């Protein structure tokens, strides 16, 4: 799954969603959303910590506001990096009369709301903030959820290994683990 190079834009787009999988079904999903052209617009890493700028603060607010949009959605671990974000979205199976939105709709709301607010601050209406798509991974078991949470929470300290860092020193073992994890059968 990461072989699609998470944030890199291929000349010919390939579908990365699992065929025949209902992304509105209850479960945990690990997502990565990248800034347009992988631009470092959300802040910078200093001493292993992410220092958010105003745009990064807007992204954080919009992430937390997703709770107000979708009653079936729970937000788990989340991190903003200089040119992308990682998060875990949990879609709950709750008995209510409203329809659950699929993961793509939840990500669309996040990207749209943060883009509008960032463009409002920088007075650049309509300028892309995010790349067109996003990367996702269906989390299949508790051990995987715990490992992904740890990866997200320690990501700023691992910036030197991040595939979206042009100065990366080597591959992160997490990337290889996640590729193998994605080959497992779905629940």
Explained architecture:
By secondary structure, this protein is α+β, with helices and mostly antiparallel strands. The protein has one domain: Transposase IS200-like (Alpha-Beta Plaits, 2-Layer Sandwich). 31% of the residues lie in helices and 20% in strands. The chain is built from four helices and six strands. The chain has helices at 54-69, 103-122, 142-154, 173-181, and strands at residues 27-34, 43-46, 49-52, 73-80, 84-91, 135-139. The strands form two sheets. Strands 4-5-1-6 form a four-stranded antiparallel β-sheet, sandwiched between helices. A two-stranded antiparallel ribbon has the order 2-3. The model is unreliable at 1-5 and 9-15 (pLDDT under 50).
Give me the CATH architecture, please: 2-Layer Sandwich
Structural Rg = 16 Å
What would CATH call the class? Alpha Beta
Number of strands: 6
Strand order of the largest sheet: 4-5-1-6
CATH topology term: Alpha-Beta Plaits
What is the CATH homologous superfamily assignment? Answer: Transposase IS200-like
Fill in the keyword field for this structure.
187 residues, alpha+beta, Alpha-Beta Plaits, four-stranded antiparallel beta sheet, two-stranded antiparallel sheet, 4 helices, disordered N terminus
What's the short story on this structure?
With 187 residues, this protein is α+β, with helices and mostly antiparallel strands. The chain has four helices and six strands, in the order βββαββαβαα.
């Amino acid at each position: 799954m990461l072989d699609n190079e998470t944030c890199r834009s291929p000349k010919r787009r390939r579908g990365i969603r699992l065929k025949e999988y209902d992304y509105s079904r209850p479960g945990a999903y690990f997502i990565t959303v990248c800034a347009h052209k992988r631009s470092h617009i959300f802040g910078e890493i200093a001493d292993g910590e992410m220092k958010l700028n105003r745009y990064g603060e807007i992204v954080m607010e919009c992430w937390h506001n997703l709770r107000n949009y979708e009653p079936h959605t729970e937000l788990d671990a989340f991190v903003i990096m200089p040119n992308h974000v990682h998060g875990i979205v949990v879609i709950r199976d709750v008995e209510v009369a409203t329809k659950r939105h699929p993961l793509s709709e939840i990500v669309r709301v996040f990207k749209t709301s943060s883009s509008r607010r960032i463009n409002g601050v920088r007075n650049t209406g309509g300028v892309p903030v995010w790349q067109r798509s996003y990367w996702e991974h269906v989390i299949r078991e508790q051990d995987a959820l715990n490992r992904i949470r740890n990866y997200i929470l320690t990501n700023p300290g691992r910036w030197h290994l991040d595939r979206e860092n042009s100065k990366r020193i080597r591959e992160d073992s997490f990337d290889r683990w996640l590729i193998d994890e994605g080959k497992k059968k779905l629940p």
